[in-house]
Amino acid sequence: MQPLVKAAEGADAVTVPILTPGKVPSLRSRTSRVGSLGDLPPVQHPSGRLGEPKREAPKKPAKRMFGATLLNTDEQRLLSLLEMRLPRIAGKFDALLLVVVLSLLCIGLVMVYSASTFVAARCCGDPSYYFQKQLLGAALGVCAMLVTMRIDYRQWRRFSLVGMAISVPLLIIVLKFGTNAYGASRWLSFGSVLSFQPSELIKLVLALYIADWLARKGNQVGTFLYGLAPFVILVGGILGLVLLENDMGTAIVIAGLATAMFFTAGANILQFLLAMSCGILIFMTQAFRGYRLLRWIGFVDPFNPQYMTNLNLQLYQSLLALGSGGWFGLGLGESRQKTGYLPLPHIDSIFAILGEELGFIGGTLVILLFLCLAFRGFRLARRTQDIYGALLATGITTWLVLQAIINIGATTALIPYTGVPLPFISYGSSSLIVSLAAVGVLLNISRYIQEPETPALSRSITIAFRKKS
User: Fold this and answer.
1) Can you give the pTM of this predicted structure?
2) Where are the domains of the chain?
3) Strands (DSSP E) along 9-131, which ranges?
4) What are the transmembrane regions (predicted)?
5) What is the 3-state composition of the chain as percent helix, strand, coil, each rounded to the nearest 5?
């Protein structure tokens, strides 16, 4: 309840709410309370007789929903601009989410050091070479997380278009001037020390931009001309550039986060299913070409002796590492597969090394941490008061969790092998820094969580269903 104050004494008194600094009152509290017509003093009629006050013709009541009068488009836009400019009082961040992410980060640093010692000693002459670079990336990532955690997430709406203007040209530049490694051209190298992967940055930038774009569209998201068509053009163009880099795993992650945000914003179900079907057909045409076709063949028959030393080498050695770990593992640093048998033990295959050294218990702990991250992230999306924050939390959480699912699923032969890093654990500074910056945005969203009567996400979904019915 907002505190009330009387503007005047007597029968004409009107009580209005006092606005608490830093908070925007709900629609229900924005209307002042006025006494009934029976409380008004009598007025003098032209005939000189006292009588009842002159009554106006009754007006058609405004449509009400959730206990508040719905605003038109212009009023919603003005209210959104007002709320953007008003200062807000930040609360406490989600401590459990921070603990989960830092736990994954610590496990990742330990496993990168353990998994990369043999490879680093053989190619660089220093067993801790990759660990030192990962430690530097973790320090920069934590700094980025602390910065994004302090910035009001609404402010990113002003820079999302600028981020797209920077990230998309980088995706084009990497096709021409990028460094080719492991069969893909994904890295922009600056000297022999610094390298950067634009496809990692585009995940965060695209989540920021799509959340702002869908929030501005409002009810037009459910239309074909203003909703589905521009969405398909935007996301399809980004996916085309990523697929030209031979990076199918990242393309799937981008498609997943964009689709989850579009569906959450209130997409038309029939149009959405049609677009999904077309997208799956396009992905399938790309999945059965070149080396990807060979991975499908190896996935169908992973233990065929004919494929163990060529098509299925990485998958077979990953399964062998997981099987030899047992319940409690061989012990930290005692992996045998990392000594030249398993390709990329510190990057794509790090979960296999983790399972070999820490066993089923260690692998289950990592999976539970990612499940906890998914729960806290989607819980934030559910409780956020504005639709922009709800969409942004949905996109970031979907991205991190889906990427973990793809990495672990490929390592355990649940899906065909594709190369994506395990968030916060695999070696790779670009992925680590961007992922931690995204977590900082999630933590900032958690600082403004309140207990609304009806959260923004439920409100938008209910409105969409009522209009369709």
Assistant:
1) 0.78
2) 95-468
3) 15-17, 43-44, 50-51, 64-65, 68-69
4) 95-116, 128-147, 159-178, 223-244, 250-283, 313-330, 350-375, 387-410, 422-443
5) 60, 5, 30
